[in-house]
Amino acid sequence: MKLSPTDELGTVHGDLKAYDYLIDKQSFSTSHDTKAMFTLKSEGQSNHLMKMWIKGSENQQIFSVMAPESDGISRGTAPAEMMGHKIPTLVLRRNEEAWNSPFTVILNPYIEGENQIISNVDFLESDSRTGIQMIKVEHSDGITEDLIIATTSENDILEKDELYFQGLLAIQRESENQLEFIFASGLRRYSHSGWEISSRTENVTLSIERSEAGFTLQNDKPVSIRVPKDLNPAYVEIYEEGKLIGKRVGVVSERSNQVEFKFEKPFDKVIMVLGK
Q1: Which residue, 43, 94, 114, 126, is most buried by CB atoms nearer than 10 A?
Q2: Residue 127: its pLDDT value, please?
Q3: What is the DSSP letter of 41?
Q4: The predicted structure's pLDDT at residue 98
Q5: For residue 80, which phi and psi values (nearest 5 degrees)?
Q6: In this structure, are residues 4 and 26 in contact, taking their beta carbons and an 8 Å threshold?
Q7: Quick one: what percent of the chain has pLDDT higher than 90?
Q8: pLDDT tens digit string along 81-130?
Q9: 115/117 Cα distance (integer angstroms)
Q10: Strand order in the sheet with 223-228
Q11: Mean pLDDT value across residues 142-146
């Protein structure tokens, strides 16, 4: 993109006084998704890189500026090349309500020549009335994919194809079309890929992660989890303070081809053992 010098971002335009400390201001406007790259060259070391995927939006400006030297970093927290220098900075600005049209970015830091983790980011359709965001992140291994859903309220609902989500945040990772983990926060209900998670009383935060035996679970509120029957969940082991306190089997639902496990309180660790 071609950058043009600008005098925007300053008190002369009614902005915050802090913007007056920015110099070498350049900008461009685009409604398209944009990818930025930050490069930090280090003597005797590989370059430090940061890729940044920016979701496009109408009325959005992207500024490249230089910010003042930072007093908040030190040689113990940042590369020596940043000490005593102005800092290249990217600023996003949108002339509408960010509450209903939030900024969405994905950041991918890595070392040049090493695995950069992310190969592509797609900002999928979102609801401009609620600010719900849905993002697909493809990994560089070619087999792993993340689905990220972010909302502005625990009461927001996203319903798309076979996906249903009511809550604040959900991240689902699949590798070779198999579930690797789910993390969800402020969750009331989640349904996708044959899994269904719901809380009837309070919004729950939980994690489900693939392990050697099957899956390891944690939850901070009572929750019901329905697992695809074809995974053959045999039983769950429940732990408290690191000790096994019990085992239980799930309830099989022939109608939905799922096995349901109910957890009546928070558990630090639950292991779902899959049958052979």
Answers
A1: 126
A2: 57
A3: -
A4: 73
A5: -60, -30
A6: yes
A7: 67
A8: 888 899 989 999 988 877 777 888 999 999 998 888 999 999 986 655 66
A9: 6
A10: 157-160, 163-166, 189-192, 195-198, 223-228, 258-263, 251-253
A11: 95
The tokens of 110 are what?
């890595």
C-alpha separations of 107 from 18, 49, 66, 137, 140 in Å: 25, 10, 20, 11, 15
Global pTM?
A: 0.86
DSSP result, 198-261: E-SSS-EEEEEEE-SSEEEEEESS-EEEEEEGGG-EEEEEEEETTEEEEEEPPEEETTTTEEEE
Record the tokens describing residue 219, joined without a space.
């939850």
d(CA 265, CA 267): 7
Q: How many CB atoms lie within 10 A of CB 151?
A: 24
Q: Break the chain into its structural domains and give their ranges.
A: 1-116, 117-276
Q: Supply 62's token pair.
A: 């992207």
Amino acid at site 263: F
Tokens of 225: 């989890």
Q: What is the mean pLDDT of residues 138-156?
A: 92
